[in-house]
């Protein structure tokens, strides 16, 4: 278990370094900033998912981050991953990105937050779970791209999902060719 945790951290940091080294990656960072996470094989809670503490941000057209990956560093991206793993245990990584009209050409699953039941919407920290549950219910699988249309006070965005952070970062960087 200790070795698996160390390997998850190494793999995540390697993928993040690849992302930040790309000259165009700053274009993918939304106002709320970006995180990328990677879960242990049998992840049960947010402390089994590694992410970047404080997220990835932009300064002078360069993606930066302050601290190396850590377990329990992001509740938001961890909930996306943990809920995905309930339906497909191979989907252990995810990343949130800025949304551009060009991304609709990827034929992503489009999540409309207004479809979330009001009683559930009132519960804090449940929308990401609902988004993944709805995608699986509608498609019968976990999609590789999910557009979150946003809502009042919630920035629209694109989620990229995959098996590893290397796969997720590769998909993300391929999106820069559309910009």
UniProtKB/TrEMBL annotation:
<dbReference type="InterPro" id="IPR019293">
    <property type="entry name" value="ThiN"/>
</dbReference>
<feature type="domain" description="Thiamine-phosphate synthase ThiN">
    <location>
        <begin position="11"/>
        <end position="173"/>
    </location>
</feature>
<protein>
    <recommendedName>
        <fullName>Thiamine-phosphate synthase ThiN domain-containing protein</fullName>
    </recommendedName>
</protein>
<dbReference type="Pfam" id="PF10120">
    <property type="entry name" value="ThiN"/>
</dbReference>
<dbReference type="InterPro" id="IPR036409">
    <property type="entry name" value="Aldolase_II/adducin_N_sf"/>
</dbReference>
């Amino acid at each position: 278990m200790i070795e698996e945790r160390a390997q998850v951290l190494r793999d995540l940091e390697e993928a993040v370094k690849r992302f930040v080294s790309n000259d165009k990656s700053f274009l993918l960072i939304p106002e709320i900033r970006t995180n990328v996470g990677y879960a242990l094989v049998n992840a049960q809670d947010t402390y089994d998912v590694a992410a970047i503490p404080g997220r990835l941000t932009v300064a002078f057209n360069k993606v930066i981050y302050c601290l190396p990956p850590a377990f329990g560093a992001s509740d938001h991206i961890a909930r996306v991953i943990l809920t995905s793993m309930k339906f497909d245990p191979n989907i252990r990584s995810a990343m949130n990105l800025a949304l551009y009209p060009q991304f609709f050409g990827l034929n992503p699953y489009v999540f409309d937050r207004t479809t979330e039941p009001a009683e559930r919407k009132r519960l804090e920290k449940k929308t990401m779970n609902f988004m993944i549950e709805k995608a699986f219910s509608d498609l019968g699988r976990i999609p590789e791209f999910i557009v979150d249309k946003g809502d009042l006070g919630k920035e629209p965005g694109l989620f990229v999902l995959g098996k590893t952070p290397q796969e997720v970062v590769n998909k993300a960087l391929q999106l820069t060719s559309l910009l």
